[in-house]
Design brief:
Layout lengths: L1 E2 L4 H9 L6 E2 L4 H38 L15
Parallel strand pairs: 1-2
Amino acid sequence: MFSAMNEVQDKIEGLELGVDDYITKPFNFSEVLAAIRSCCETGSSRRQVSRENGRLAVLESLNSSLGVLHPARPKAHVGAR
């Protein structure tokens, strides 16, 4: 977000509303480029994590349907120690 409102409370409100960054006027061009790069990298990372979570959910669903146990989650047996 670019804004002429540069009070700390203005920045806090903007960030609490969900903006990725809050840059006030006058702004430095290098700062703007760094903020844009950061937003692009964050968005890319979020999409990648979302895709991987979707793949894991599908695999877990298939494994569950087939009765395959996840190696990190062994099935507990009643009375077993």
